[in-house]
Amino acid sequence: MNIIGETIRLISIQRVLGRYALDDVLFRSPSAWPLRLAFKFSPDRLLSRETRALPRAVRVHRALEDLGPIFVKLGQTLSTRRDLLPDDIADELAKLQDRVTPFDSQQARELIEAALGESVQQAFASFDSQPLASASIAQVHAATLKNGREVIVKVLRPDMEKIIRRDIGLMYHVARLAEKYWPDGRRLRPVEVVAEFEKTIFDELDLVREGANAVQLRRNFQDSKLLYVPEIFWDYTRKNVLVMERISGVQVSNIDALKKANVNMLALAERGVEVFFTQVFRDNFFHADMHPGNIFIDIEDPENPKYIAVDFGIVGSLTDGDRRYLAENLVAFFHRDYARVARLHVETGWVPPDTRVEDFEAAIRTVCEPIFEKPLAEISFGLVLIRLFQTARRFDMQVQPQLVLLEKTMLHIEGLGRVLYPELDLWKTAKPQIERWLSEQVGHRAMAKRLRDEVPGWGEVLPELPRLVHSVLKQQQEVGGVQRAQMQKLVDNTSQSQVSRSSLLAFGAGVAVIAAVLLSGFAQLAGETMPSSAMMLGAFGALIWLVLLIRSK
Questions:
Q1: Cβ contact 502:476 at 8 Å
Q2: What is the pTM of this model?
Q3: CB 167 within 8 A of CB 68
Q4: Do residues 396 and 351 lie in contact, with contact meaning Cβ atoms separated by under 8 Å?
Q5: What is the pLDDT of residues 87-110, one digit of tens each?
Q6: Could you tell me if 395 and 360 are in contact, meaning their C-beta atoms sit under 8 angstroms apart?
Q7: Is 283 annotated in the active site?
């Protein structure tokens, strides 16, 4: 990194922090007096009388905007970490908008041409130099392919990687200072937050990765009546250029336009919740940046509105354990079974095994009972998760990044649903999906699914089974022969009984395995239904095993 450029940028950050008197927020520790002294007599600090009168959350918001688009992105990420931030700052940072002045259109054309290896005129039938939208990472232009398909061309801003690396390096400097001198620094772990932000933003710099995310989501919702995902044109997509089908729809935040089109707002809100939980529980692959700017509505059929998603730079997935944890916790929460919630945290290792479950249960009850005093339709999923994470942190729970993405997405979806239809009962909408998924994990559906999953493997093993049984029997016979030759007095008492026992057990095992394979084969053919003939075969195999085992003793 250029030392002069880094120094200049660091000075500019110091000036902005001084302008908004954020030294009062960051450096309140007694040991930070040299830093406070340096800020106290800076010109920007002395001239900040008006800004010092503003609430601290507003000062943080404005400082991030003044520092530029990368810091705005950081603020947006921070707004989702309500397990870390005070509520006033988290609420204010949620208002940050990623609106950035477009960069030069000629430069955009040159970047696209360099990526594609041909001129814009050769690649497209038409190309609009005026950008449709511009954000901190990229901007978007409208174009038409040679075959007449209307598309959008997304191109990364020039030198983004270098700019991001510079600013993230400086963020780490500020985070380390805050961690050392900020009273809440160790608890809020700013260095860890910057590291999390670094990974997220660098993922967004690879537009091939974004295209792959879009293709996966499109496949998951192929022919769906709930969500449409635009097509990606791979022949025109590179690491810094993405070409995608252009969609038409009403932006979800344009409530007036939706109502004017007589859109069924209740159906729209319920479908939004269904789309989210389908992504999380059915597909384990969810769009994790579903703010209103990335969601449009197809209003062709107002009674059956359909969501359209764009911008797939950030997606999330959970482990099976995380999903089970989430589902069971939500169900337990809404039944006010706090003991179950506490036990789940210990069982899944989210809190240390020596945690006193009774103490944890009492802490959760204290936080959640005020929430559940509200009508069910007013209870916030997002608020429940936030309070859970905040409480669990006091018991040394380490919040996983994938759950932070989930929390962020849930807050977006929940807020959107309540804007579209304020009386929406989120629990009523989500509960059937959560309980259905849980039944598929632990009930008869789960057993049938596991049997279906095992059938291909057993298909490979089954043809070898007779040969393996024969090999075992032959080996036992050979061993028995040697023993008879060497230990004549023990032949009847030892060797032969071992041969007989092993042979019978091997045969019984073969019968039992064949019965299990046939049973799972029937399960695969019949879905969840297990035919009586398959059940009888399994029972017959088990009976043979038991008889042979008794006779072998």
A1: yes
A2: 0.69
A3: yes
A4: yes
A5: 788 788 877 766 677 889 999 999
A6: yes
A7: no
